């Protein structure tokens, strides 16, 4: 094992860390005027696009959240400032905090499921060969590539009370109580089905990302580990894990953001029902804002959603900002 | 990069123009007549038969020199977002189609052209009352009727015959009797349903409530107060439950007639009746042509023998966005579309025309004949701008139905809760 | 690393099981596409389809505009993916390997940029495109998809670069390569799998986007496949059989794209082994 520790740095994590120390030494030594501007030149296209097409509209959303912007104001081009009215309207709703908590728990469950499943399948995929490997990959890609309109419908059919293949199969297997069983009679059960739908669509990304990370680890390291007589677990924890750890962190972080914002699937399954019990924040944004064309309220909910997300990911952002403070000026 | 520069320039322009995001500015100015002009018309997918629109557009272009009709069929998915952005854009369409329950939400916001002075010249005397009401706000007319449809009971003539039912039911009692006979005859088949009725078919519920003399809400000027806990509304809800229990329907109590699609289930041949729009029979018969031959329809029966129950009328209105640059031309187009010549074609296509009282073309088919018979007694939802939000969101009537049918709430709690939710929505 | 026969069988069985679970909804979609419209939901036990028809594919194919919409979708999607990858690789390298003033600010921008719900952004975006004169033009969609996929692409590629041991680059630099030479010869080849995974994701995100495609493109012949898919819904109900068949046709390009790039997943790894 010693050889491995000597050849590989294990502190590339968390993903938010600044570059490794050696970079600094060699980087600074040769830094000329040209080299100093190079990072900015390389970043310029990305910065430009994000500022114009994401940051600017996002700033406008913040502005709109302090305005009354219904269809009438929008069509007439009126700017009507209303202060924090939109926020008080949203926050004074006793349901808001219930919905926020529900959304957070739902996101946590789906993300945990997605990352664990994605990681396991990625590790498994590395050890597969030939047709089985292609089969697994193709099914993953198909799960991912099918249009949401079709997948949500197919899920509703599978879970249909009377004619769904799931209930019919369970009855065939002898579980007679599933005859006419409704999977959507409670919020928890509805959210579970929605969670499975989202998980099914989200695992492929996490899985392929981690799998790609596994492939990145140079083969020599695995060979060295094998020569050292390392067990499968030791090989994983000393060779694979350091390579994929930043990717796992990153996939978790991205999954949190995405799953938190899922609207189409949640809405399509039961419209946030029964009795509002599967309503999440994006559904609230639709109900309070978009459905009645109260875009000021919609923007306020959007801003609140971003704030909740920042709180949720605070630890990650903190790591990003705090690590090696001295190094990054 | 050129495009990027352009985008940057655009962004800078907005930044300079306003503090936030502004629309394109109000008041469409009239384009000078003469010269080539384009009239943009947005109708929904499936609304008007293609033969009708082709002829209509040709006639309109012939009568107005230099005018081209840009006819664009719109899709249902996402139409609200598309209308929102289109109305706020620099060149909005000149004519738009709005769902009749959506129409008040546009009328109340001053984004449509006031058509009050043009009603008479647009065949106003023959307008369908429920759609006319949907287009009114504050005493003014902001949209015109287009076409409508209402539900009737589509039934299997062969099954009725085998069960010994001589004539289509004309009262609630006869209806329930027919169900009893059907179940006696076919009940041994566990998949048989005398009537397919899902728990959340709130259009049907409205019919029963209207029949009892109730309504969703009572209007006081532009204010609305929900009345679901009135004795009439409760009686309607009770009958809905009675019907669900009597029919032995296995339809889900927590979903509506579209999930799963009831026409598909009727099409499998194990259902004797469904409460549906005429064309749902066409869907059911798609893979089973015999079903169409063996089906007919009767209007939803009233509690008063011999009468038909009032029905919820679904349909569309037509409007001219306030920013249209061709208001006069658009009005001319509406006049032509609402003339008898084209309205009759709607009846021939199986719809209730919005601006013609001549429904004779509907009598050709027994199913549309039943619809026509009930259509004179058509009603719509409260004409409040907030109704659109109720329907697009979590409809309290659906929650009420499920809660009462599944026994989660008793009738008092269910209806009171619905009133609370509706009132909250009405005050927006 | 050699496995025994028993281990191989266990692993492959596990692989097949995973694939079956993941394939089931897809399988259900596929069989639905071959079912008559009224048999989507039946009381009969139809795990294996009871009857097969090609009607749905015929009607989906006959739906006007498939090829036009397919072309539009390919233009905006492939365009956005390529732009995203170029800008993403350019940005990922300095973010992972260099230090410079403003680095953290940029990282924060990338992170927060992904948090805004797209449903709330469409009005500002619409007005922006209108003022830029890009409405009803494919470049507007291409730009939006570029922007939507970029933060994620930058962020993921940065993660992949970080995963590559710095020693490999150092070794190359000792061998006389410059910093960027080392990046090009050592890091880029190893980055192959990461680029593939990222591009597949970006492709699918853009391929499935509906709201912006609907709102930006007015003319029928400029719309994309997700909008085409929604034309199966009319006043008279929804043609579910048609939608299922159309969805199969719709997913194929994404699958083909994956099959083309997935060879890179393997060759990328090999290249890494050779160079490492």
Topology record:
The complex is a heterotrimer of chains A (329), B (428) and C (276).
Chain A: H1 2-7, H2 21-30, H3 33-64, H4 71-76, H5 85-91, H6 95-127, H7 130-145, H8 148-158, H9 165-172, H10 187-216, H11 219-227, H12 232-261, H13 264-270, H14 281-290, H15 295-312, H16 314-322
Chain B: H1 2-17, E1 37-44, H2 50-63, E2 67-74, H3 79-88, E3 95-99, H4 103-107, H5 129-134, E4 136-137, E5 140-141, E6 144-150, E7 152-156, H6 157-162, H7 172-186, H8 202-212, E8 217-220, E9 223-226, H9 231-247, H10 262-267, E10 273-276, H11 278-284, H12 289-293, E11 295-298, E12 311-319, H13 327-337, H14 340-348, E13 352-353, H15 366-375, E14 378-379, H16 387-392, H17 396-405, H18 411-426
Parallel strand pairs in B: 1-2, 1-3, 12-14
Antiparallel strand pairs in B: 3-12, 4-5, 6-12, 6-13, 7-10, 7-11, 8-9
Helix pairs in contact in B: 8-9, 17-18
Chain C: H1 5-33, H2 55-62, H3 66-97, H4 103-113, H5 118-131, H6 138-163, H7 166-174, H8 179-208, H9 211-216, H10 225-229, E1 233-234, E2 237-238, H11 240-275
Helix pairs in contact in C: 1-11, 2-11, 3-6, 3-8, 4-6, 6-8, 7-8, 8-11
Domain ABC transmembrane type-1 (chain C): 70-261
Keywords (chain C): Cell membrane, Membrane, Transmembrane, Transmembrane helix, Transport
GO cellular component, one term (chain C): plasma membrane
Quick overview of this protein structure:
The complex is a heterotrimer of chains A (329), B (428) and C (276). By secondary structure, chain A is mainly α. In chain A, 74% of the residues lie in helices and 0% in strands.
């Amino acid at each position: 094992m010693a050889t491995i520790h000597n050849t590989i740095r294990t502190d590339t994590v968390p993903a938010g860390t600044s570059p490794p120390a050696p970079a600094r030494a060699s980087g600074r030594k040769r830094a000329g005027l040209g080299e100093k501007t190079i990072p900015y030149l390389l970043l310029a296209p990305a910065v430009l696009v994000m500022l114009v097409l994401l940051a600017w509209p996002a700033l406008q959303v913040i502005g709109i959240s302090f305005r009354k912007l219904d269809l009438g104001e929008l069509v007439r081009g009126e700017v009507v400032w209303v202060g924090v009215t939109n926020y008080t309207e949203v926050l004074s709703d006793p349901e808001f905090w219930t919905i926020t908590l529900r959304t957070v728990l739902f996101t946590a469950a789906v993300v945990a499921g997605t990352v664990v499943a994605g990681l396991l399948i990625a590790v498994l995929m590395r050890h597969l060969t030939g047709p089985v490997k292609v089969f697994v990959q193709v099914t993953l890609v198909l799960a991912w590539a099918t249009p949401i309109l079709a997948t949500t419908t197919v899920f509703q059919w599978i879970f249909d009370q009377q004619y769904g293949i799931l209930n019919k199969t369970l009855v065939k297997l002898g579980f007679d109580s599933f005859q006419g069983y409704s999977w959507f009679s409670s919020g928890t059960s509805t959210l579970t089905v929605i969670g499975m739908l989202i998980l099914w669509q989200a695992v492929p990304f996490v899985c392929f990302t981690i799998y790609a990370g596994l492939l990145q680890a140079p083969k020599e390291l695995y060979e060295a580990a094998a020569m050292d007589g390392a067990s499968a677990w030791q090989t994983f924890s000393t060779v694979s894990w350091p390579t994929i750890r930043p990717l796992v962190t990153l996939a978790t972080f991205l999954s949190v953001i995405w799953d938190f914002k899922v609207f189409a699937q949640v809405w399509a399954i039961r419209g946030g029902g029964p009795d509002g019990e599967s309503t999440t924040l994006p559904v609230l944004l639709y109900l309070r804002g978009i459905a009645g064309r109260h875009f000021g309220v919609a923007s306020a909910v959007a801003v609140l959603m971003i704030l909740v997300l920042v709180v949720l990911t605070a630890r990650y952002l903190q790591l990003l900002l705090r690590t090696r403070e001295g190094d990054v000026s | 990069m050129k495009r990027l520069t352009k985008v940057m320039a655009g962004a800078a322009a907005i930044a300079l123009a306003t503090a936030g995001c502004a629309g394109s500015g109000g008041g469409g100015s009239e384009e000078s007549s003469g010269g080539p002009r384009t009239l943009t018309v947005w109708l929904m997918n499936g609304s008007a038969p293609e033969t009708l629109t082709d002829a209509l557009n040709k006639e309109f272009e012939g009568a107005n020199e230099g005018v081209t009709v840009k006819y664009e069929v719109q899709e249902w998915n996402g139409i609200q977002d598309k209308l929102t952005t289109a109305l706020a854009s620099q060149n909005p369409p000149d004519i738009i189609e709005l769902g009749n329950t959506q129409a008040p939400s546009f009328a109340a916001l001053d984004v449509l052209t006031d058509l009050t002075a043009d009603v008479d010249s647009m065949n106003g005397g023959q307008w369908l009352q429920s759609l006319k009401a949907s287009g009114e706000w504050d005493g003014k007319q902001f949209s015109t009727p287009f076409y409508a449809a209402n539900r009737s009971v589509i039934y299997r003539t062969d099954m009725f015959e085998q069960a010994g039912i001589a004539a289509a039911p004309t009262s609630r009692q006869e209806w329930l009797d027919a169900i009893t006979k059907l179940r006696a005859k076919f009940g041994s088949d566990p998949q048989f349903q005398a009537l397919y009725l899902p728990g959340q078919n709130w259009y049907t519920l409205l019919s029963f409530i209207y029949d009892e003399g109730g309504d969703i809400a009572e209007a006081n000027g532009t204010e609305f107060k929900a009345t679901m806990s009135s004795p009439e509304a409760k009686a309607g809800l009770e009958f809905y439950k009675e019907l669900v229990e009597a029919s032995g329907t296995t339809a889900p109590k927590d979903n509506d007639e579209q999930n799963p699609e009831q026409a598909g289930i009727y099409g499998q041949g194990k259902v004797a009746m469904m409460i549906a729009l005429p064309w749902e029979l066409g869907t059911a018969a798609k893979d089973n042509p015999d079903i169409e031959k063996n089906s007919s329809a009767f209007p939803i029966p009233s509690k008063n023998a011999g009468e038909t129950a009032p029905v919820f009328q679904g349909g569309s209105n037509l409007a001219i966005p306030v920013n249209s640059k061709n208001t006069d031309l658009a009005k001319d187009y509406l006049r032509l579309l609402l003339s008898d010549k084209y309205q009759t074609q709607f009846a021939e296509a199986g719809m209730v025309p919005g601006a013609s009282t001549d429904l004779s073309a509907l009598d050709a088919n027994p199913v549309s004949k039943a619809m026509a018979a009930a259509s004179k007694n058509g009603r719509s939802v409260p004409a409040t701008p907030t109704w659109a939000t109720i329907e697009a969101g979590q409809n309290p009537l659906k929650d009420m139905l499920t809660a009462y049918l599944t026994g989660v709430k008793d009738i008092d709690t269910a209806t009171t809760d619905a009133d609370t939710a509706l009132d909250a929505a009405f005050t927006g | 690393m050699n496995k025994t026969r028993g281990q191989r069988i266990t692993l492959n069985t596990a692989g097949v099981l995973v694939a079956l679970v993941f394939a089931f909804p897809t399988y259900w979609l596929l069989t639905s596409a071959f079912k008559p419209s009224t048999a989507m939901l039946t009381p009969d036990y139809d795990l294996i389809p009871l009857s097969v028809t090609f009607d749905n594919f015929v009607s989906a194919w006959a739906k006007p505009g498939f090829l036009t919409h397919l072309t539009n979708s390919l233009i905006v999607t492939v365009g956005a993916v390529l732009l995203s990858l170029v800008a993403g690789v350019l940005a990922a390298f300095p973010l992972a390997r260099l230090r410079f003033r403003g680095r953290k600010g940029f990282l924060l921008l990338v992170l927060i940029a992904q948090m805004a719900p797209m449903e709330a952004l469409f009005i500002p975006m619409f007005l922006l495109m209108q003022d830029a004169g890009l409405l009803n033009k494919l470049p507007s969609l291409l730009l939006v998809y570029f922007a939507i996929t970029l933060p994620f692409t930058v962020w993921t590629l940065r993660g992949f670069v970080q995963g590559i041991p710095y020693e490999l680059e150092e070794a190359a630099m000792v061998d006389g390569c410059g910093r960027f030479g080392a990046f090009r010869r050592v890091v880029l080849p190893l980055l192959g799998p990461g680029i593939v995974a990222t591009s597949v994701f970006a492709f699918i995100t853009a391929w499935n986007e509906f709201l912006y495609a609907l709102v930006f493109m007015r003319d029928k012949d400029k719309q994309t496949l997700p909008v085409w898919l929604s034309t199966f819904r009319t006043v008279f109900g929804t043609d579910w059989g048609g939608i299922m068949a159309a969805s199969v046709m719709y997913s194929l390009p994404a699958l083909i794209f994956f099959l083309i790039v997935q060879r890179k997943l393997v060759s990328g790894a090999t290249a890494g082994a050779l160079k490492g």
